[in-house]
Design a protein that fits this description.
Helix content is 32%, strand content 31%. It is α+β, with helices and mostly antiparallel strands and 110 residues long.
Length: 110
């Protein structure tokens, strides 16, 4: 399945821009996960977690390095592609409400 990056109206990809500021360790783990997803693999914990309780088809990639934890939300749109929607540095136990709202808004746009 194809992997696409969500693009803002300006044509910029928030996930790709986020990754530019991440460590080589995070970028490498992200590329490994994306290659597996593109090859049709279903990822599971600890690398990926389904977020069906928030929206059907929504998942999060879970990565960490010495600087902390990173979450990258992706959405599997059946028959279309896997969309990388949003990324952030996780600082709390729960997913912040504003991050979830942003992801849901982006799902509606694709």
């Amino acid at each position: 399945m194809r992997v696409k990056f969500y693009l803002k109206s300006s044509g910029r990809s928030p996930v790709e821009e986020f990754l530019l500021d991440c460590s080589l360790e995070i970028r490498s783990a992200f590329l490994d996960a994306v290659n597996l997803l593109a090859g049709g693999q279903n990822l599971s914990m600890p690398v990926s977690r389904p977020l069906a309780n928030i929206h059907q088809g929504l998942h999060e990639l879970r990565m960490k390095d010495r600087n902390g934890q990173v979450r990258i939300f992706y959405f599997i749109k059946k028959g279309d592609a896997i969309y990388m929607l949003h990324a952030f540095k996780k600082k709390t136990q729960e997913l912040p409400k504003n991050e979830i709202e942003l992801v849901l808004k982006r799902i509606k746009e694709i």
